[in-house]
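Pipeline run #58 for the internal structure catalog. This entry was flagged by the ingest filter as a single-chain record with no existing model, so it goes straight to prediction. Upstream metadata was stripped on purpose; only the residue string is passed forward. Reviewer on rotation: M.T. Logging verbosity set to normal.
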Amino acid sequence: VAETSLTQVGASEGNGRHLATIAHDLRSPLTGLIALLDLMQGGADGALSPAASERVRRIRSVVDRLAQVAEQISDLALAETGGLPVMTGSVDIGTTMLSARHRLEPTLHASAVALEVTVPPGLPRVLGDATRVCQVITSLVTSLLKLAEGTTLELIATHKGGFVEVMLREESHRGL
């Protein structure tokens, strides 16, 4: 039994190293693309036409999404090797939900999806890792975006029986 456990740990660490290599190989060219797109958007070579500016914005949206995927792969690699840092502390869910929305703005815009955030006044803080909670919320919204083009999504926090609940609801604007 101990041999099997050691073999599984070794395989997990090998997977983690492989994932870390993939994340690094993705991040390197993306960093260059982001810098180039920022220069273009900033007018380093002169002002862009509105059509060119829109194309650069769309490319940047895709590059930002790929960078998020690389970050997720990196976190998965750290989790596989037991090195994923978790910083437990007091988390303001409302602020975390707004942070997730901000991270998703380019993707939301590209999908023609509105994301409304509803947080009741006096919502208590929760114990957790704000970074990981933001990642979970971002991942949930991103998963629904594939099916939600042209809709409004509402991210809602509520306080029920000593717990804070976060839910995601879709409101369709499409005619039937």
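catalog note: The two ends are 59 Å apart (CA to CA).
catalog note: Residues 10 and 100 are 35 Å apart (CA to CA).
status: ready for reviewer M.T.
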